[in-house]
């Protein structure tokens, strides 16, 4: 592969968001979503070389996503255009009970992604490939592609990063547990969120959770704890890395921002505790604006905050 092959790849589904901005006569603001796409953008804003691995439809929404990735300097060489399927979209509504998410993703281009579509040379040349529970959940063929990507990465010395991102609208808990635990067994760096991992494991103590996850095989577990920060564990050491206090207005995508910043710093040479300190700040800053993508800070903003 050429030397400009991205050092960090992410596999999954990106979608176009329509977020309700009026109540009596609703209008919708167009934005973007998709956990692994958010991850890629967060890593790119920290200066990492990233590429997205997926499919979009040959439609205006797919073109919007290509425009987004190109603006964010995310390599789109590995995003295929599917003329037979749409790009996924979702709507965010607001009411007395809070946010409601409605997804139109069944049969989407990304859900039709299959092992034959994988950019095997790029995966072998990357430092890290990142996936999530959603990458596994959207369809059988996408799940097969994810496990094929993991196997190829491991065979070629590419690290595997995995974020649980449990979405029970996509699959039942029993299936999610079985499939995700198999993925975690083949993962080098596990990035679980507290709510996800307590549901998946049935455990509620931090050390029990990280003991369980490390026993599956990962070398690093970065358990995300929201405003508290993160609990970082390796086979040799573990400790809480405190969060960074901000006036948060919207935590959408903060976990994805943490993951992208954390992996960007690992690739840059940080140890997991240094990477977590940086990623905690990046994730905190990302909660100071609305949406998953727009508020993600760049490297300068994170470093200035750390140095302040």
What does this entry look like structurally?
This protein is of the alpha/beta class and 308 residues long. It has a single domain (8-307), classed as Ribokinase (UDP-N-acetylmuramoyl-L-alanine:D-glutamate ligase), CATH 3.40.1190. It is 39% helix and 23% strand. It has helices spanning 35-45, 60-71, 120-125, 133-137, 140-155, 173-185, 194-201, 206-216, 254-268, 272-286, 299-307, and strands at 8-11, 15-20, 28-33, 50-57, 74-75, 79-82, 89-95, 98-104, 128-132, 159-163, 189-190, 220-224, 229-233, 238-242. A hairpin with a 4-residue loop joins strand 12 and strand 13. Helix 1 (35-45) packs across helix 9 (254-268) and helix 9 runs antiparallel to helix 10 (272-286). The longest helix has 16 residues, at 140-155. The model has no long low-confidence stretch (mean pLDDT 94). InterPro entries: PfkB_Carbo_kinase, PfkB_dom, Ribokinase-like.
């Amino acid at each position: 592969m050429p030397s400009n092959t991205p050092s960090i790849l992410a596999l999954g589904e990106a979608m176009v968001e329509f977020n309700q901005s009026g109540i009596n006569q609703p209008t919708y603001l167009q934005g973007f979503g998709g956990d692994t796409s958010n991850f890629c953008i967060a890593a790119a804003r920290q200066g990492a070389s990233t590429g997205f691995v997926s499919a979009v439809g040959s439609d205006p929404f797919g073109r919007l996503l290509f425009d987004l990735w190109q603006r964010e300097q995310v390599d789109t060489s590995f995003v295929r255009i599917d003329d037979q399927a749409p790009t996924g979209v979702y709507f965010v509504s607001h009411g007395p009970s809070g946010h409601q998410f409605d997804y139109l993703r069944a049969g989407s281009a990304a859900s039709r992604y299959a092992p034959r579509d994988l950019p095997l040379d790029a995966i072998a040349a990357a430092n890290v490939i990142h996936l999530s529970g959603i990458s596994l959940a959207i369809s059988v063929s996408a799940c097969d592609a994810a496990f094929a990507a993991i196997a190829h990465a491991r065979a070629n010395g590419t690290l595997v990063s995995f974020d649980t991102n449990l979405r029970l609208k996509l699959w039942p808990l029993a299936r999610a547990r079985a499939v995700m635990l198999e993925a975690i067994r083949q993962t080098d760096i596990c990035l679980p969120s507290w709510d996800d991992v307590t549901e998946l494991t049935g455990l509620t103590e931090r050390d029990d959770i990280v003991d369980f996850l490390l026993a599956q095989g990962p070398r690093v577990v970065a358990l995300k704890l929201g405003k508290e920060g993160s609990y970082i564990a390796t086979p040799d050491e573990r400790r809480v890395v405190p969060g960074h206090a901000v006036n948060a207005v919207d935590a959408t995508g903060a976990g994805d921002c943490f993951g992208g910043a954390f992996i960007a710093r690992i690739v840059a040479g940080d140890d997991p505790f240094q990477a977590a300190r940086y990623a905690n700040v990046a994730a905190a800053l990302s909660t100071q604006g609305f949406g998953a993508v727009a508020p993600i800070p760049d490297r300068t903003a994170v470093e200035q905050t750390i140095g302040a």
